[in-house]
Amino acid sequence: MLEGSRENPSELDVSQLNRTIVSIEYPGRVINDDEAFRTMGGLGMMSAVHSKENRKIELRFRPDDPFCKPTHGEQIQTSNLLFKIVKKTRKNRLTQKEEITYHTELEGVIRKTYKFLGLCDFQYLPMAANTDGKELADKFMSILELVAPQKLESLEWLQEADAPVFMSPPVFSRMDLPVDYHFRKDTVNALGMQYDGNVIGRLRKKRAMQTIFLDYSGGPAPTKPRDMALCNLTVRFIMPDDLALIKRIDFKKMFEERPVWTKAALTYQVAGVDKNSLRFILASVAYYFTTGPWRNAWVRIGYDPRKDPEARIYQILDFRISQNYRNKVIPKRSYSKYNQPHKYASTMRTKTSSIRQTADTSSTSSNAVEKKGENSYVYRPGMIPQCRQMFYQYLDIFVPEIKELLTSSVVSKTCDERYGWYPSHVEDETRRILNNYISDSFAQLSPGKKRNKKSKVQEDAVGGEEDEDSEEEDLQLDDNNLEDSGDEEDSSGEDDDEEYKPSGKK
């Protein structure tokens, strides 16, 4: 063993502790730094990924091959130190022995490290059997140039009869890490149950809220809530705070005074109520329209707006900000968190109960409905809509021209599935007036810009790239913490509550 000496660690330059370094644990032997950077998209791409949160570095060992499946490097918080060690070897001329010394320098602190923990061996290469006939030739050859031509081929190339077939799989594995799959018996076969063979993916249990969903053409309105919806109230609301909540807010009286409510109007009126509690309460006093003039609205049980012309003021207006001002108003939902999908199987299983056991999870929990401004469901002159897409009810639009339009419009004899009780021109005219008011409001916010009267915003606001009809009520769809089930839920967002089906008896 060679003799050596080492510097005293106390003599290290501690000023380097303020220097932050990012580490990448490259899954391979790096000989050429530039080639290693190229497999990760280059320094520019690496810097762009590092500047954003929750982004992963994609590493392709064959960067020129579009069929190369990448492995992902995930950012992990670390507290490591980077040292530079210099080895000096001297040969003593008299003794002919080598004297080795080590010089240690502190380079900085590694706060973030990118680690490639997933697999990247799920590759499907564009290869074909080699028909060259030579003994030393490879059994397979690459047909990448044929699959992805880099130049314009001649007409004779298109007329060639023989061509290799390359069909890549439509999807690959969603997980990069191997997952233990615990097989269990098929519950359908074990219990002797039968299911519709045309239905795919019914893996999740029925939801516990018992909300009644009604299509516009789905028959008469329900006359009473489901028995389980009333039973859920007695099981759910057992804490003192919950009982005080029901006494404080008379939901039945609210629906007597106004038989149709939107989600935004309800959350504004009952601000501070726990979201989970609100779901159960609404299921006992109202049903939910999925289509028609009152879609995405809660309607009092026993009341059918399709038969009452006075219900026209409760109709829904789907209004969307024009393209000129979309960048000035936030969307309903932010999709920035979905830049990179989750690549690893979660080892955590959330298991919650539908019955709260302690007062710590009362109606003052983090699930409470946040207090929003009046502009979340009402429009008055000078207001800026809260989101790019708004679901207004006509009675909540306090614009003189629109009020006059609604008053002077002739009520239809029958209720139309799209326009309700109003004539067809009312919807478009209302949008035009709202767009003009909103344009004036933005012009007042930017006094330096003059409004071009020739280019008044008169476009149909229904069109647009952002279809947020998925508002389909967080009050119903987002109930991941309501069921006490050991089974993992499918996160597809499908409504498992059965749609209300009338018996046909009048």
From TrEMBL:
Residues 346-371, 444-506 are annotated as: Disordered. It is found in: Nucleus. InterPro entries: TF_IIIC_su-5_HTH (IPR019136), TF_IIIC_Tfc1/Sfc1 (IPR040454), Tfc1/Sfc1_N (IPR041499), TFIIIC_tauA_Sfc1 (IPR042536). Its main location: nucleus. Pfam families: Tau95 (PF09734), Tau95_N (PF17682). The lineage of its organism: Eukaryota, Metazoa, Ecdysozoa, Arthropoda, Crustacea. One of its GO terms (cellular component) is transcription factor TFIIIC complex. Residues 347-368 have a biased composition (Polar residues). One of its GO terms (molecular function) is DNA binding. Residues 22-125 form the Transcription factor IIIC subunit Tfc1/Sfc1 triple barrel domain. Residues 166-320 form the Transcription factor IIIC subunit 5 HTH domain. Keywords: DNA-binding, Nucleus, Transcription. GO terms for biological process: transcription initiation at RNA polymerase III promoter. This is Uncharacterized protein. Residues 462-499 have a biased composition (Acidic residues).
